Amino acid sequence: MRAVVFERYGEPAEVREVADPRPPEHGVVVRVEATGLCRSDWHGWQGHDPDITLPHVPGHELAGVVEAVGPRVTRWRAGDRVTVPFVCACGTCPACAVGDQQVCERQTQPGFTHWGSFAQYVALDHADVNLVAVPREMSFATAASLGCRFATAFRAVVQQGRVAAGEWVAVHGCGGVGLSAVMIAAASGARVVAVDVSPGALELARRFGAAECVDATGVPDTAERVRELTGGGAHLSLDALGSPTTCAASVDGLRRRGRHVQVGLLPSAAGTTPVPMARAIALELELLGSHGMAAHAYPPMLELVRAGVLRPDLLVTSTIPLAAVPDALAAMGTAPAAGVTVAEPWS
Ligand SMILES: [Zn+2]
Ligand SMILES: [Zn+2]
């Protein structure tokens, strides 16, 4: 099969022929029809992820068709249209046993713990636990956008963040996950303040339902601006970028007893992130993490997509062939795209 491979961190990846994967005993091989490009892929390529061993094939936001099935899989057959959360769970550890597959103790992540989906085929373990059926009417490009950022944003806003209608929600960072969070919070009846440094990202945020937009390059203190716009601070605030600056601004922009949800990854290579804990105590803030979403939690989200309340399709702003992935991956370091780029390995 053809795949995007890199041999060394930070050096150009290339598209070349590699061996086809085989299905694990409890897993499947999926023919990849669409796979999203994500900032996590860039971090992995830069060597910021300790799970990766070289040479490596990145890619973790995928949708496609089951091609081959391991002997212990009971729920899936060749030809099924599927996607997966980026955290693939084992199904049997204590976390999985209580339904928290998103923090599985023996999780695998395609494109990190093993070769991923910037390839014509990808192997996925524990298919009965992790695969999600993609409805006929949903395109593969849209389905690919669900597994990482959209599902992550959904869990961050709805489950971890416990958004309520009428609340102010601040979203710091309007890349793929941030724009998804804007859309989901607005659809939940919240008033959204979107914060970013890119006018293009803020324009998309407004289109997806943000009531207020803050250009972080134009104000000395974004948290203060959020507190002004929201009459004292957001009820719920997300760092959807993942940086010490946006993390602190998110916490500082909350009102009393507000909830901060950390969604953007804070790479371990950058060290431990300082958090304004004095404010967390004085204002009784809640500080929460959010890490993907379990496959079994997808149906309510898919129902809102089916009903047209949520429109992940609008987040996909460009599709590229596999051959264009190495350059697109490199470009993420300097110019993070507004919206979502999806690669189609068979085009
Ligand atoms: Zn991702
Ligand atoms: Zn587990």
TrEMBL record:
A Pfam family annotated for this UniProt entry: ADH_N
Gene Ontology MF: a single term: oxidoreductase activity
SUPFAM superfamilies assigned: GroES-like, NAD(P)-binding Rossmann-fold domains
Species annotation: Streptomyces naganishii JCM 4654
Xref: PROSITE patterns: ADH_ZINC
Known role: Catalyzes the oxidation of 2-deoxy-scyllo-inosamine (DOIA) with NAD(+) or NADP(+), forming 3-amino-2,3-dideoxy-scyllo-inosose (amino-DOI).
Protein name: 2-deoxy-scyllo-inosamine dehydrogenase
Keywords: Metal-binding, Oxidoreductase, Zinc
EC number of this enzyme: 1.1.1.329
Pathway in which this enzyme or protein is active: Metabolic intermediate biosynthesis; 2-deoxystreptamine biosynthesis; 2-deoxystreptamine from D-glucose 6-phosphate: step 3/4
Domain of life of the organism encoding this protein: Bacteria
Segments forming domain Enoyl reductase (ER): 10-343
Cofactor dependence: Zn(2+)
Catalytic activity reported: 2-deoxy-scyllo-inosamine + NADP(+) = 3-amino-2,3-dideoxy-scyllo-inosose + NADPH + H(+); 2-deoxy-scyllo-inosamine + NAD(+) = 3-amino-2,3-dideoxy-scyllo-inosose + NADH + H(+)
Family statement drawn from the similarity comment of this UniProt entry: Belongs to the zinc-containing alcohol dehydrogenase family. DOIA dehydrogenase subfamily.
InterPro entries xref list: ADH-like_C, ADH-like_N, ADH_Zn_CS, ER, GroES-like_sf, NAD(P)-bd_dom_sf, Zn_alcohol_dh
